[in-house]
Amino acid sequence: MANGNFPRNLPILDGKNCDKWCKQMKVVFEYQDVWDLVKLGVDSLVENPSEAQTTAYKESNKKYFTALFIIHQCVDAANFEIVGEAESSKVAWENLEKAYAGDGKVKKVRLQTHKQQCELLQMEEKEEVGAFFIKVMALVNQMKNYGESATNQSVVEKILRYLLPKFDHVVVAIEESKNLADMSIQELQGSLKAHEQRMKERSGEKNSEVALLAQSNNKDKRDKGK
Q1: Which of 100, 123, 149, 169 has minimal Cβ neighbours within 10 Å of its Cβ?
Q2: Which ranges of 74-179 does DSSP label H, i.e. alpha helix?
């Protein structure tokens, strides 16, 4: 049965966040137990239905319009024009898909654009591992949204190629000691972050040593000047 306790902060489609909004909405629909109805619609009531069939149909129809109500609450004024005339949640959802997904040619162009961005991607100097992974995964997810079937191994290999030269010896060690087909993205991120932390600690130790040496040299100069 649909859950009447809606989340307080529902996602709002504003025209710039379609991919993220769709993922969030699917979770909301699943939580309300109406996702199947949004995708498939409600079957028509059979002729001469039994009391149980009539009751089941009414319940499904109620949930169906609950889903439409949710969609109305989760779009801005401009996007309400796309769904406002829809008589069912299925039609409203399909209208939004058509409006934002475009036809096959548009999707191919967008996928190609994301692929080119992915090929040109490089880790920036001073960029931390965590921020870099967020950037890579955002681009990978965008490509998946337009039909790209990126395997876990292909993503791991891409990340290893995009890292800064200071990670080269870590990359070699990972490639020689790990089976990339079995390595998760989370495992790779953990290994790189651990290495990054060690480099920071060593850099901090070196800076401390340099500071101590400078202090010692200054003291020697002062002592000689006396």
Answers
A1: 149
A2: 77-83, 89-101, 104-120, 129-145, 152-162, 168-177
What would the pLDDT profile of 141-173 be if each residue is shown by its tens digit? 888 877 788 888 999 999 999 999 989 999 999
Cβ atoms of residues 53 and 46 within 8 Å: yes
Confidence of residue 104 (pLDDT cuts 50, 70, 90): low
Tell me which residue of 98, 127, 137, 103 sits closest to 20, measured CA to CA: 137
Residues whose CB is less than 8 angstroms from the CB of residue 217 and which lie 6 or more positions away in sequence, other chains included = none
Q: What is the DSSP letter of 75?
A: B
Q: Which two tokens mark 142?
A: 């965008």
pLDDT reported for residue 6: 60
| Torsion sign over Cα 159, 160, 162, 165 | positive
The domain spans of the chain are: 18-101, 104-212
| Cβ atoms of 127 and 148 closer than 8 Å | no
pLDDT (tens digit per residue) in 187-221: 999 999 999 998 888 876 555 555 555 565 555 55
Per DSSP, the three-state class of 125 is coil
DSSP 195-218: HHHHHHHHHHHHHHHHHHHHHHHH
Q: Are 105 and 87 in contact (CB under 8 A)?
A: no
Q: What is the pTM of this model?
A: 0.53
In whole angstroms, give the CA distance from residue 58 to residue 110: 42
8: left (phi over 0), alpha (psi -120 to 50) or beta: alpha
